[in-house]
Design brief:
This protein has 2 domains: 79 residues; 50 residues. 48% of the residues lie in helices and 24% in strands. The protein has 4 helices and 7 strands; from the N terminus they run βααββββββαα. Strands 1, 2, 3, 4, 5, 6 and 7 form a 7-stranded antiparallel beta sheet that branches. The chain is elongated, with a radius of gyration of 19 Å. The two termini are 23 Å apart.
């Protein structure tokens, strides 16, 4: 299988820091303003659950075993734990494409997956190419 373009799926450090700082700030503000131990314990439990859930979602959109590839006709990824070596993807219309980041959603074997790509992590040229190909595919 020839690949026309590869787009690495990378961790997004600023987003991970935002998750940590946001949840920690919420926890500190609630502890400072609440004077009931019961309310504080509830806030701690809810914040811990929220952080765990948010972190799991963060990992889903920033990690994968291979890069997203464009073959010239199809989106695809190489999967090591699937019977076929290559999995073809269908780009969904619910994907977000902006000037600074893109959250591309795909249908892979009747499962919806999404990956986050940013201009900073991919670089100017590669990010522009990704956006162009995604917009072109969405028009068809």
């Amino acid at each position: 299988m020839k690949v026309a373009a590869r787009f690495p799926i990378k961790a997004n450090i600023p987003l991970s820091y935002l998750l940590i700082v946001g949840h920690f700030s919420l926890l500190m503000v609630s502890i400072f303003y609440l004077n009931s131990v019961t309310y504080i314990l509830v806030i701690v439990a809810v914040t811990a659950f929220s952080y765990f859930t948010s972190y799991q979602q963060y990992l889903k959109v920033t990690e994968f075993e291979d890069d997203l590839c464009w073959s010239g006709e199809n989106w695809l990824v190489h999967c090591k734990n699937v019977d076929e070596d290559v999995s073809y993807l269908e780009l969904l219309e619910t994907s977000w494409i902006t000037a600074e980041f893109s959250l591309l959603k795909f249908n892979m074997a009747d499962e919806e997956i999404a990956w986050l790509f940013t201009r900073k992590s991919l670089g100017e040229r590669l990010y522009s190419e990704l956006c162009y190909l995604a917009k072109l595919d969405l028009r068809h």
